[in-house]
Amino acid sequence: MIDLPDPLVNAPGWSLETIARYDENGPTFYWNSFRGSEHMGTHFDAPVHWITGRDGKDIGQIAGSELIGPAVVLDRTREAEGDRDYLLTVDDVRAFQDEHGPLPDGGWLLLRTGWERHHDDPAAFTPSDDTGSHWPGVDPECARYLAHDTPLRGFGTEQVGIDAGGAYAFEPPYPAHYHLLGAGKYGLASLANLAELPTTGALLVVAPLRIAGGSGSPARVYAIVPGDGRPQAA
User: Which fold has domain 38-233?
Assistant: First the structure.
């Protein structure tokens, strides 16, 4: 989970508190209460998460039919290994389409960078130094292009969020959030197992909590791969 600088307020970390476990509080059952952020772990961004999408849908308003759709995987693992500040460009996306066909109508573009290998190492997952934060993402023009010039429903990454680590300094700041959520599209972050998916042809099934009024939710994300029959957890 990302740490925001002062004076911005950080979300609480994940906690689980036992209410009853076959004891005097509930002799025949076990259950817990939990606390955490809508945007932690593998999670879904609804349009209202960003100021540009504040008049759009919250997560409780998103129909189940919008949470199932085709996915393509754009692999930039090699580029990100050589440059942790790597940014996907419009030219990259157009070259991908020249090779693999148009982006899917009502589907998802998933950016694979190999970043999932850092999921269990916070210092490597969200690295920062005196020059800022450093992880891959999309450049501002690419974010605008994906939001306004493609038929995609959403964009997903392996990183902590859908924007690059240095995106606070872009114009506009955090352009993936700004453009995609402002256009009524959706985001997925902290995905895993993208290497298990084909470049094209997978069907993505996104399963967030349906939080009334929520800006997002932790989510299970599955991909059904043709000819396999076994869903892959993302």
Answer: Glucose Oxidase; domain 1 (3.50.30)
